[in-house]
């Protein structure tokens, strides 16, 4: 009689079901417990059976072959098993995850040895293993819940490319659900060659690459990374995909880089007619998406106006990116604006780089000193304004962008057009809406208004407290021509507050701070030796002997300063 026939005598022919929520956990724990317990005992024959509390067999393990024994599952243990003289039976009840089971140890009458100890070991191992598994399951659930709160999409596929997991963000970004993803192969799901298949094939990570994919007849643009997953033996068993939409990537990049507009119309200080008109027109233009051209001398606040327009518009939550066209060599500004693909040129970053047009999508791109832009770039800019599409250097993909352009210059574009250095068609395309920031000399009493504003701000910051500007100093401020406009005024007041020892900004303090003009040339000439020596001594003391700063404050060259110091015998 073979082993199966021998043991089958003790099971009835009726079958029953054993549905329960712990079946997979039970199988794993049972297998682990029996194999480990048997390794410690000398028992060579016997059958270990686990059943539900109704006696329905769930698993059976044969010691002689050291393997699960099939053919017993679902059969019910016979009542006569305990009465048979050919066998010895021990049993033990156990609970697992709120379900109750019975473990039977069935051996021949001469083989039972220490089966009671063996049964105890098996039962204890099953319960211990189950507790550990439940604990790990709890940790696993916690990890999965955490992944569902991650903004990046995360998915996992097995070594054959079948999707086995995806988090909540993955479903949301792809506009899909669990049933449409799980169990499907990547080749079936997407067009083209899935990136994760390359990760599986080469067993190497791919990090932060631009990835275009078509899924469910929709096109998506991601920043994508893929990582191989290894077993304890070092074999690749799957791959993890982490991706985010290009829009979110841009937002993160802009946040990190500080691509934000900080100034609003409240930061434009002044009450003059020209400044009030400027603000009124700028607010109207902010409600449009048309290109704005801001004209004005250096230091009149063209970028401040551009930021205020952005923050007053529907794009205020988007990025504000400024690029000074005069600050980049011709060979670099192209890649700064349009970006480039990996390998586009020697020194190109791995994975390529987004240009300012892409980074500014959804917001505003401020092109300062547009008059300095080279003619070949002017043609490309015109095409962008007409199509709202760009192609990176070295790439063929046309990327759709949503950008509002604000350009600024202190030069006469009309004159540049006549000279042939600026495209006429681009000039008219930029000048759809035009603003002109007035010079400070055109703003009358705004000079005093601004000077007092800067004085209060700087005095508060430096802890100097309340200060006033004397009438003679106000007169001097109004008489000065201000070639550097508001920027020059702010710098002058900063120096004046710094060197002022009292609570009054006087005409003399302004002179020491560096205000220039015919009025002060006359002061110097009036009593050259006395005034210049007194002023030099004071300024040298205030500047701690720093001759460079002294020369800048007075408005003379350092060689001239050295001659004056020698002439007046000042160390």
- Mean pLDDT comes to 80
* Sheet having the most strands: 5 strands, antiparallel
Radius of gyration: 41 Å
Weakly predicted, low-confidence segments: 15-21, 518-531
Strand order of the largest sheet: 4-3-2-7-6
Query: What CATH architecture of the largest domain would you give?
Result: 3-Layer(aba) Sandwich
Count of structural domains: 4
Could you describe the 3D structure shown?
A hairpin with a 2-residue loop joins β10 and β11. The relative contact order is 0.06. The termini are far apart. α17 crosses α19 and α22 packs across α23. The protein is built from 23 helices and 23 strands. It has a five-stranded antiparallel sheet with strand order 4-3-2-7-6, covered by helices on one side. The chain has a five-stranded antiparallel sheet with strand order 9-8-12-11-10. By secondary structure, it is of the alpha+beta class. It has four domains: 143 residues, Beta-Lactamase (2-Layer Sandwich); 99 residues, Beta-Lactamase, CATH 3.30.450.20; 181 residues, 3-Layer(aba) Sandwich (Rossmann fold), CATH 3.40.50; 124 residues, Helicase, Ruva Protein, domain 3 (Orthogonal Bundle), CATH 1.10.8. The longest helix is centred in the N-terminal third of the chain and has 33 residues.
């Amino acid at each position: 009689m073979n082993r199966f026939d021998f043991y089958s005598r003790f099971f009835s022919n009726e079958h029953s079901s054993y549905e329960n929520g712990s079946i997979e956990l039970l199988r794993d724990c049972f297998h682990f417990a029996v194999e480990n317990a048997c390794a410690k005992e000398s028992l060579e024959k016997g059958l270990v059976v686990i059943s539900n509390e109704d006696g329905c067999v769930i698993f059976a393990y044969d010691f002689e072959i050291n393997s699960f024994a099939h053919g017993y599952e679902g059969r019910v243990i016979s009542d006569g098993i305990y009465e048979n003289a050919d066998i010895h039976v021990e049993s033990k009840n156990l609970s697992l995850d709120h379900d109750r089971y019975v473990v039977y140890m069935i051996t021949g009458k001469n083989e039972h040895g220490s089966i009671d100890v063996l049964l105890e070991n098996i039962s204890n191992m099953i319960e211990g293993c189950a507790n550990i598994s439940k604990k790990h399951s709890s940790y696993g659930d916690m990890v999965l819940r955490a992944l569902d709160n991650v903004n990046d999409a995360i998915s996992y596929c097995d070594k054959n490319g079948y999707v086995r997991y995806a988090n909540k963000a993955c479903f949301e970004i792809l506009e899909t659900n669990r049933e449409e993803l799980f169990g499907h192969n990547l080749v079936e799901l997407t067009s083209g060659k899935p990136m994760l298949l390359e990760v599986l094939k080469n067993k190497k990570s791919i990090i932060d690459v631009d990835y275009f994919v078509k899924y469910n007849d929709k096109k998506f643009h991601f920043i994508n990374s893929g990582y191989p997953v290894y077993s304890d033996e070092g074999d690749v068993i799957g791959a993890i995909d982490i991706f985010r939409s290009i829009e979110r990537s841009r937002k993160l990049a802009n946040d990190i880089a500080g691509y934000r507009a900080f100034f609003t119309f409240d930061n434009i200080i002044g009450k003059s007619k020209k400044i009030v008109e400027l603000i009124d027109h700028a607010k109207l233009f902010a409600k449009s998406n048309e290109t704005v051209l801001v004209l004005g001398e250096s230091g009149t606040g063209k970028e401040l106006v551009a930021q205020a327009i952005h923050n007053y518009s529907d794009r205020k939550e988007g990025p504000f990116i400024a690029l000074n066209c005069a600050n980049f060599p011709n060979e670099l500004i192209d890649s700064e604006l349009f970006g480039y693909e990996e390998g586009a040129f020697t020194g190109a970053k791995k994975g390529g780089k987004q240009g300012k047009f892409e980074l500014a999508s959804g917001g505003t791109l401020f092109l300062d000193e547009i008059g300095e832009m080279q003619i070949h770039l002017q043609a490309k800019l015109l095409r962008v304004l007409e199509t709202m599409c760009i192609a990176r250097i070295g790439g063929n993909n046309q990327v759709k962008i949503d950008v509002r352009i604000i350009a600024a210059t202190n030069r006469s574009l009309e004159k540049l057009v006549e000279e042939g250095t600026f495209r006429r068609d681009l000039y008219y395309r930029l000048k759809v809406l035009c603003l002109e920031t007035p010079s400070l000399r055109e703003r009358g009493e705004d000079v005093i208004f601004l000077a007092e504003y800067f004085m209060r701000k700087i005095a508060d910051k430096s802890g100097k407290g309340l200060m006033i500007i004397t009438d003679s100093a106000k007169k001097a401020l109004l008489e000065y021509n201000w070639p550097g406009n508001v920027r020059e005024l702010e710098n002058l007041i900063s120096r004046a507050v710094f060197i002022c020892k009292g609570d009054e900004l006087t005409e003399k303090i302004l002179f020491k701070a560096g205000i220039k003009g015919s009025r002060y040339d006359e002061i110097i000439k009036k009593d050259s030796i006395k005034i210049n020596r007194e002023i030099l001594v004071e300024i040298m003391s205030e500047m701690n002997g720093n001759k460079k700063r002294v020369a800048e404050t007075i408005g003379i060259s350092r060689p001239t300063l050295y001659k004056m110091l020698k002439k007046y015998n000042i160390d």
